[in-house]
UniProtKB/TrEMBL annotation, chains A, B, C, D:
Ribonucleoprotein found in the keyword field: no
Species this chain originates from: Sandarakinorhabdus glacialis
Pathway where this protein functions: Purine metabolism; IMP biosynthesis via de novo pathway; 5-amino-1-(5-phospho-D-ribosyl)imidazole-4-carboxamide from 5-amino-1-(5-phospho-D-ribosyl)imidazole-4-carboxylate: step 2/2; Purine metabolism; AMP biosynthesis via de novo pathway; AMP from IMP: step 2/2
Keyword flag Signal: no
Enzymatic class: lyase
Stored Pfam families: ADSL_C, Lyase_1
Identification of the protein by name: Adenylosuccinate lyase
Its EC number(s): 4.3.2.2
């Protein structure tokens, strides 16, 4: 995590203050349950809730000596609570606290990521409707194919992020479980009722069977999901990078007056935000593999997952949060150039209508092979003229073509509206 | 894909015969819809259904010339259908066929994987109940921790694969969509009704917005899910490898009479199946990254995803199918040694009860620090005696301990049943 | 491995025939050494060399029963050799044969990859010199920056693949070792002299210390290197894909007369080869992670690496061989359009000279900040005019600019040659 | 990067102070070269060297406004240098500074990693000689195979880290290049002599051909190499984790008096350092993929690599530095238990001699199949007796065995020394 690519709300989840606060709540709620069970006196729970507090610096100090973070926390807590502190953590293991805390943190992180996605969806939707009918070139293989609209491009992105949102919701559900089951998950020293009580209080579900730790397939699924979402961030970022290329220039990241695109070349306006998003996507995807490798812990648990999660827990959620937010800003303020879109669309002398002509020839009775040959031989001339020749002109001068399709039938085939007639249908599917 | 790690049913999905059959069905169903729309004559659809067939070898032959698989298929189909063939594929693009076909293949592959998981779950459940109450050592960090039962170990695996199953169901849903939307997804040359008809006939949902291709975030999620499942396969395989270690030997892969464990060392019985599963898990996880990289196609599509999917589509599903099946066999026939489990459990002179004694000291009024120190100093002697000394003997000889806990109170703390009292609770959570 | 992305020479290395032939040679050479050591009779070695042969089908048949490939091979070999066969494999373990064989296969695969790289380098060099002085746009962030030459673009690729070649040579060296050291690498049952003899005969070095297996850090380094080379393949492929975009069209993959770019759109000429290379690069990179995970085998060895290598050994070398060869063909026949390059270069009204003007203003005495501001404010007008305005015209009309640089000093700053004066220097560095 | 897994020397390389200092040196050395070339006045260079300094906080302040780190640095520098500052950075681009700086940082990081490896090698060597002749069980598949020595286990690790060291040296060489070649690498505005001068002054080689940036295949190779080294760290860590398992307990991480292994179970001594190393290895490996994805930048450069490197540059080098250092400490203080090794070695009733007996039977004239059958049938009885039966006793009671090998010939086959006779040979290979 580096400040440059971080937002405070997500960072806060991962700060010691927040972590210890969650630990405190888990321990205190557990005491309430233990009181109910008659295991600890009611006064002890009361003391913890009333006098319980902690200081990060003091915990650090103790940890330097004990080399055990939970023990350091409990020691610091005891300094405030007093003798009743000996009932804290009764029958629990460190992992009961650590793993349940991680669940809370990941669930909160997921909440932010879901909210980020909602903001992104809102931005995409607004711009999509704004340009629902703005004709633009559809490209396959980077090559002009057939017309589409800029709104449709954004509708695709919208539908993709709706899926991402659903995946994040599922990932959150995967991870939001509570385990307070003791050293190997048998509840030997702690009643299952404690787990149930803490789970409810912390808005988690209970882990049906744990083994000191919450099983790491849950976390693997969580981080894998972030990797998929990062892929979608990269897709939309890549689209914008392409559109901003000098020769295309159909859209541009917002460029503030006075901004410097390059220290050396004053003329530059670079898509640096979306390039940055491409890099951030690589990072978030890179965290997937360590998370997958974390699943196969030894027997009831080993601690190899811990260092991995200390890094990728914050790094992946902070980075993806930043990326989603940055992407929202990019979309929100994106400079869109309909004139240039139209200019590009018309650049290739009508080639974009080649399929329709092919179909018309077939429907007029020409064989598929002949139709293809007739269109291709004229299209290639246009192609090689770099758009100087017009396909329509060549076709009407080709008697083999006009034998099947006279000029009057050819002309309407070059109508742009033909390609855009189902835009509303698709918008209804996506946004309804 | 190599035969050694393949099963015929899954392989069949990926064979040319199956692929072309799906293509045929897509094309033929599309024609039915085009007939309904009045775009092509009813006779043409009838001709396709009645006379349509194909030969893999002939398609290969044509493809060597045209270098285009869909065109080769259509040409071969036309050889059988005759002149009505010119109505086939009307207004469609190759991707309409290819991507919808891939959806069908992945959905069928998912069905097999789900069935595999069901078989695995059944095997785990049977063995779990068989050993519900078989005491065994619970280990954290590879070190004896506290007792559990072998049934609980398997219950954990069961719960994990129940989650895997749910993930596979979700992954199947992600992928089971149909796109017949034309060159850039605008339905310019084909009515959306065709897509709807084919989707229904092929048991798919419609893709709300496609761009010649079905968006690859769906496939990324699918392959990422397989990677997570592979992680769970590795976890259970690793458990068995550990249990079969010579010094542990609490369970063994079935070893057939006459089987040779090693060409050089006739005494060997190696956990080769679960080691193999560990390797297969690496492979399936390795396919996740290319799938994630496939998401960010250029503009409406580029074809970089295609070679990736030609490889990882079969490789990941065939490998995971084989792995799940192999794991089922391993569990089903696993040799389980309760006597050895008990022997290991008792190996460390009662150290496994250390937490309970710690708690009892605390509850008797000793401070947490003192309690820890008292138990640890006796436990370390047992530890260093390699199980020759018994913790109980040392404790009753330690006056600082007996000051808090007299012998009569110490004795019942060494009861194994204490650890197993919630087994039924957990089984109810997992299997109910 | 699928035929579509395979070349026969590399495939042959991985076929059973080749593998068994290497096994045979290892066993026979080992016998020669054992004869020298007096361990086995000279006749036995003679018998093996003279009568030793094998049949793949027969080995398969035996393996189906014994489930052990080396035992199956030895049994089949014995059927031909007769009683002297009992001296074959004396004191050896299967891994001695398997691992040394894999070394031979990977070394041969590396030889082909190195030769592939040589062919690619030759093609790049030829085209680089052909276009050493062809001016073309240099682009950072996809945005016009300053002029370069097409030869320089290729010189960069050349230097990169020279590095790739050196890495492949180093990777080959890493992997070309021989281990014949017995069950745990102690040479208990076989003298180190056998290893030395076989190593020399098979053109390998000896493995200083093995543990039944050759350590897998060597293989990890090998496959990681292939992943890096794949990255370089992707870089050059991506460059060509960009150059072929309709709006750029400065180069094109060769398009054969009669070729069909799209079944639906007869006008299309798509960069499908380089898109394919992008996908193949993803695959080769995807094999790196499993290879890295193979390093940490348990104790003296476990067999988890084996299934991984059975897949990625062939898949990564075959795919990269195919990719390098395909890329060579693409470069060799690449259609290059100098006119279009020049047209694009001039497209932005002289903006490409902005840095030089900035420097000239600074050198004339303007502050860096003022200079930047003056150039940028004029450059942005050109930018927004979409190349309709010329930077030169605006500058000479800006009195703040001409106060520092009069027209006569501005004019020569727009000289293209200024940018190309060091082309020979760079070519000397790269190709000398 | 988190403090818990960081060491100050490596962290320092990546701190702003260090980075700006390198920037300063690059700029100042470049000025010297420009003076020599007559491009800038000698006084300007002198002023920079004499008055040039910077403040991190001030640069941050400026950057918040300009959003460009190099411009912020230059502005701050100018505040100290005065008017001569306008000659600083003459003809250079930001990347000239940034990329050359990254080379210096990575080279310095490599130096530390190489020194770390040297320290690790020294520790391994010392312990290897200490236990050169300590017999211990060699295990394949986690199953007892044949005897080896603990020194040989460490000799293997030594040889592996010797290879790692060589790879780090090569990786350092890959990365230690300098590029000062201008906006697209043509040296349009800066003479190649500047690059040569700065390269020499900063102990780098010149980059033969750059394109504003140093090509990222170099960095990919660097980070891939770190991933391989991490794999070797994991291998040795895994070995120790296995040896510390309760049932094996042949070695243990050092456990300080008063240390707490578990907050709940006072008896625990867990291999937490090596488990931690396993996790850290996953992290370092996880950074390989983003580095590989960074290679294919668009055209002359895009900036997608930048965010990746800002994270993985520090994270991978700091983590690996920490891991190598921690592993050195683990080896250095490792508690090694020769008695327990011998006890385990003898645990399986002499099964570890099975191969030697097999060979002796063959050499006595029995067929390979018969020999195998005879040894296996007795070995399996020992196996199933859990080491209660002795192989020797069973063999001498098996008339089919004694028919080939009478007792007097069987007895010497159970000699441990037989397995250790080549230890010196291997030590000479590894340490000579």
């Amino acid at each position: 995590m580096i400040p440059r690519y971080s937002r405070p709300e997500m960072v806060a989840i991962w700060e010691p203050e927040a972590r210890y606060q969650i630990w405190f709540e888990i321990e205190a709620h557990a005491m309430d349950a233990l009181v109910t069970l008659g295991v600890v006196p009611a006064d002890a729970a009361k003391a913890v809730w009333e006098r319980g507090k902690f200081e990060v610096a003091r915990i650090d100090e103790i940890e330097r000596e004990t080399r055990h973070d939970v023990i350091a926390f409990l020691t610091n807590l005891a300094e405030h609570v007093g003798p009743e502190a000996r009932f804290v953590h009764q029958g629990m293991t460190s992992s009961d606290v650590l793993d349940t805390c991680l669940s809370v943190q990941l669930a909160r992180a997921a909440d932010i990521l879901i909210a980020d996605t909602d903001a992104l969806l809102a931005a995409i939707k607004r711009r999509a409707y704004e340009h629902k009918d703005t004709p633009t070139m559809g490209r396959s293989h980077g090559i002009h194919a057939e017309p589409t609209t800029f709104g449709l491009k954004l509708a695709q992105a919208y539908a993709e992020f709706v899926r991402c949102r659903a995946r994040l919701v599922a990932a959150r559900e995967e991870i939001a479980t509570c385990a307070i089951s003791g050293a190997v998950g048998t509840f030997a020293n702690i009643d299952p009722a404690v787990e149930a009580h803490v789970a409810k209080a912390m808005h988690l579900t209970i882990e049906p069977v744990s083994t000191q730790v919450i099983p790491r397939d849950r976390h693997a699924m969580f981080f894998a999901t972030l990797g998929v979402v990062a892929g979608s961030v990269e897709r939309l970022a890549t689209e914008i990078r392409h559109l901003q290329r000098t020769e295309v220039l159909e859209a541009e990241e917002y460029f503030a007056p006075g901004q410097k695109g390059s220290s050396a070349m004053p003329h530059k306006r670079n898509p640096v935000l979306t390039e940055n998003l491409t890099g951030l996507a690589r990072l978030v995807r890179g965290y997937v593999t360590p998370a997958l490798e974390n699943v196969a812990l030894w027997h009831e648990r080993d601690i190899s997952h811990s260092s991995v999660e200390r890094m990728i827990g914050p790094d992946s959620t902070i980075t993806l949060d930043f990326a989603l937010h940055r992407l929202t800003g990019v979309i929100d303020k994106l400079l869109i150039y309909p004139d240039r879109m139209l200019k590009n669309l018309n650049k290739m002398g009508g080639l974009i209508h080649s399929q329709r002509i092919l179909l018309a020839l077939t429907q007029a009775g020409a064989s598929r092979e002949d139709s293809y040959r007739l269109v291709q031989r004229n299209a290639m001339k246009v192609w090689e003229s770099d758009g100087q020749l017009q396909l329509f002109d060549l076709l009407i001068a080709d008697p083999e073509v006009t034998a099947w399709l006279p000029v009057a039938q050819l002309e309407p085939l070059f109508d742009l509206g033909y390609h855009l007639k189902h835009v509303d249908t698709i918008f209804n599917r996506v946004f309804a």
